[in-house]
Design a protein that fits this description.
7 strands; globular; alpha/beta; binds NADP nicotinamide-adenine-dinucleotide phosphate; seven-stranded parallel sheet; NAD(P)-bd_dom_sf; Ketoreductase domain-containing protein; Rossmann fold; oxidoreductase activity
Length: 253
């Protein structure tokens, strides 16, 4: 195994892998030698195009897209079972799927609250539950959960999202303590502001203000996050667990 291939021969499952941070994780995991199953929700065409591109670029590896609504336990259970079926071995789960529905709490509709909690937090249960035991039984593996600076600090207009992502951090720390003795690590990555469709929706004046809170005055890239995620998913990070690592360019909120 060389430095360039820390995930050589590993099996990795990524939710929300069709675009943004998830797609960068899928891409890098394949570059680092993994076989990958990734989930998408509404973007079937985009997911298939990504899988075709990456399968062609990495002929020895497998890259499989599967549709899943991570907020739905039955759907997530089917996704997990199919993912395990498609992989020769399973070593790492990246819980990345997420949505925002930004609005002031006073104006928040029940649907907005439930969509945000369902996709960002319920998914920690629905997806991790069926995929944890295989890691525990083989006594090795990694779970990497994508949280957010919003969950660490609280951001106005994001009460549901901050609550969900803070929940992801608590879930991560507790689960790390439950499965540490079985050789399984559980960590959270908390991105700040990253250039994806999620942040493209931020109005320009607000984006400029947010950039003024970042020492380098720029949003991060999905690749910045993917490198940390793939490191935590690899054996290299075997002695890191129960952490929430912020990757935010020094953002102060
Ligand atoms: N971008 C940022 O600045 C930032 C900052 C902090 C944290 N994060 C977190 O990082 C993660 C990725 O964010 P991103 O910016 O890359 O988001 P994105 O570009 O909006 O992509 C979201 C991904 O999640 C999938 N998804 C959405 N709802 C789903 C559902 N119900 N079931 C399954 N998959 C679903 C989407 O699939 P389809 O496209 O197929 O629907 C897509 O692949 C999220 O957890 C987000 O909260 C992002």
């Amino acid at each position: 195994m060389t430095d360039a291939f820390p995930l050589d021969g590993r099996g990795v499952v990524v939710t929300g892998g069709s675009r943004g941070i998830g797609a960068a994780v899928v891409r890098l995991a394949l570059e680092q030698g993994a076989d990958v199953v990734f989930g998408y929700h509404s973007g079937e065409e985009r997911a298939r195009a990504l899988a075709e591109e990456l399968s062609a670029a990495h002929p020895g590896r497998r890259c499989t897209p599967l549709r899943v609504d991570v907020a739905d336990a039955a759907d997530a259970g089917r996704f997990a079972a199919t993912a395990l079926d498609r992989l020769d071995r399973f070593d790492a789960l990246v819980n990345n799927a997420g949505v925002t529905r930004d609005t002031l709490f006073a104006r928040m509709a029940p649907r907005q609250w439930h969509e945000v909690i369902g996709t960002n937090l319920d998914s920690m249960y629905t997806v991790t539950k069926p995929l944890l035991m295989p890691l525990v039984k083989q006594r090795s593996g990694a779970v990497v959960n994508i949280a957010s600076s919003s969950g660490l600090h609280g951001i106005p207009g994001q009460t549901a999202y901050s609550a969900a992502k803070a929940g992801v951090v608590g879930f991560t720390k507790a689960l790390a303590k439950e499965v540490g003795s079985r050789g399984v690590t559980v960590n959270a990555v908390a991105p700040g502001l990253i250039e994806t469709d999620m942040t493209a929706a931020i109005p320009e004046d607000k984006a400029d203000f947010l950039k003024s809170l970042i020492p380098g005055h720029a949003f991060g890239t999905p690749e910045d996050v993917a490198h940390l995620v793939c490191f935590l998913a690899s054996e290299r990070a075997r002695y890191i667990t129960g952490q929430a690592i912020e990757i935010a360019g020094g953002l102060v909120v």
